[in-house]
Amino acid sequence: xxSGFQQxxxxxxxxxxxxxxxxxxxxxxxxxxxxxxxxxxxxVINAPQKVIEQSYNETWLGRQGPGGPGxxxxxxxxxxxxxxxxIFSVGGMISSFLIGxxxxxxxxxxxxxxxxxLAVLGGGLMGLAQVAASYEMLILGRFIIGAYSGLTxxxxxxxxxxxxxxxxxxxxxxxxxxxxxxxILIAQVLGLDSLLGTMDLWPLLLGLTVLPAGLQLLLLPxxxxxxRYLYISRNLEGPARKSLKRLTGWADVSGxxxxxxxxxxxxxxxxxxxxxxxxxxxxxxxPLLIAVVLxxxxxxxxxxxxxxxxxxxxxxxxxxQPAYATIGAGVVNTAFTILSVFLVERAxxxxxxxxxxxxxxxxxxxxxxxxxxxxxxxxxxxxxxxAIFGFVAFFxxxxxxxxxxxxxxxxxxxxRPAAMAVSSFSNWTCNFIVGMSFQYIADACGPYxxxxxxxxxxxxxxxTYVKVPETRGRTFDQIAAGFRRTPxxxxxEVKPSTELEYLGPDEND
Length: 509
Prior knowledge:
Layout: E1 5-7, H1 22-43, H2 49-64, H3 74-96, H4 99-106, H5 108-127, H6 135-163, H7 169-190, H8 202-207, H9 210-219, H10 227-233, H11 237-248, H12 254-268, H13 275-280, H14 285-299, H15 303-316, H16 322-347, H17 349-373, H18 380-397, H19 402-410, H20 416-445, H21 449-467, H22 476-483, H23 487-491, E2 500-502
Antiparallel strand pairs: 1-2
């Protein structure tokens, strides 16, 4: 709970603070299984790089026949590998445009259910690629699983943000990122050559993504639909009331429903927006700019360069066991994401994002210096490891989790799906650019590539400091009102409906 506030009893006519119920836990867990798959497919392609490249070469030789020219040309292999990595982001870019349409048409829960068909298809193609002696199947499977992940990256934060109580919205929203990094870590561990990262078993490693898809298909039908979607978007008061009762555990949800009614009344003056309407809207220009730039700060920070190419980066730094160092980075990744779950509602979104950007900038500079001095001072390999671990840790404090769920906070129910589509597309576009170009840029710039990331991080820090508001402890309506040029509403603290009473300014604010 933010300092400066205390929990108080319920006042007459006001609902108590929503407690964490079993159904709420089940709903959040079921939703973030999609994020787990997203993370798994980010990390799964890294550790078995050498054996997959060897498989590509064998497929190439098999197609050339005995009289062929020989092994696959290095330039062709580099292109095929970069495409295998980056095509994942192309799928995400394309599908992210459909988030708003699908979320409104099917609803949040049903859209997540239907999305698993892509996970099963993509996982199947990747798992059968070696049997079919076709690297085209692997690339196509990566594209399809990328399309799945593109939809997931918008649907999961939207659903979790809409079902979460206000006082837990940040913490539950961070679980989306926690599931992503756990997925990355699982992929890194299973990708070891002592487990599934072998010439025979790497197809199984890539195909395992169907398992969380199956579990989500089993669990999601028992979860409620978003009451905000049901009441505000579909005008279904009865189902919305039933969903609220399941999520809150209250017999009487009139107070929570009254909040939705007020939000709907506000929305009636601001009709649901399509993607073109959102892009033309002057009212939403500032929050949309903030949402897009925060997504850029996540991807152009260089973090996916570390995720995709960490093994080769550690090799360049002279680390003897780069695969295990990569797993160490994954453990740091997960630990600091867990830490951010507890910090986000206390320190606030803006503060953590600024701290993360500043720390990553410092680590990128340290990484540049360490790589430059590595040949003359071999011990600088340890400094490289510290820089990468610090880079990952600061990322998960702020720039990792916050851009995903803050988009759902910056927009009211009407423009939210279209805004999620725009921000997700921005994220995936940058993901593709980094995944496709990093190896070439790194070859051209050498250690100075991390200095480029440091400059970008400094720019994002300045933007966040000047433009990004704090959304901690404020309802969706209060946040949206702040962008309608009524700052007093953004300055209001949460009243007794959420059991909070203002006791004075926070000394940290």
